[in-house]
Amino acid sequence: MIKRATELKDNSDWDKTSNELKDLQTKWKDIGPVPEKYREKIFKEFKEACDHFFEQKRNHHGKVENEQVENLKQKQAICDELEKHVQDQTATPELLEDLQEKFNAIGFVPKKDIGVIRARFTQAVEKFIQALPGISDEEKSRVLLESQLHELRNDPMGDRKIHAKEQTIRKKINKVEEDIALWRNNLEFFGRSKNADKYKEEFNEKIRVAGEQLKQLKDQLKLLRTVS
Length: 228
Description:
Elements: H1 2-8, H2 14-30, H3 36-88, H4 93-105, H5 114-130, H6 137-152, H7 158-187, H8 196-227
Helix pairs in contact: 1-3, 3-4, 3-5, 4-6, 5-6, 6-8, 7-8
């Protein structure tokens, strides 16, 4: 048991080794007493090997925790910067791309803060895009989708989420196409009644708006296909 503990003391597979050493410690206690003249010596050897490993583990996790706290501060600073550009009306697509790259390049944050910082960053990006000057709502929608895809590329579940997003857009396209077909069909049933021209105008406007929405959805689908 001392030999095995000594073999494990410098192992950096923290969880697996920790469990094995704890099992050894339990078995050590279960074994009966040894001759008095050996008792202190062998216990000291065994304890030193176990203590060495657990001290290394504590130091490692302490270092990791400090790094994660620093990473959180850096990500918070990027969110601050995004929000300041919105406030100062200095948002640009180039700035957005640069700040996203910096955010994603930063390592892990403490587990308890993952959801909060991600939600804040997502909200800050959306407000940043809405604050972009001189571009249409359609262009803002495209930039937002590109931003979301940028995030998904850094997500371990990114492929699955992109596929789900593609399916959602396809369903929206089908719904809009069905609406347009229905409205066009209804137009054919209008006679020369007193209000026919008014109804036709309303339905033609619905068809026009839906046509623009359909184009946006198909552009989004095309963009998705370039990364999937």
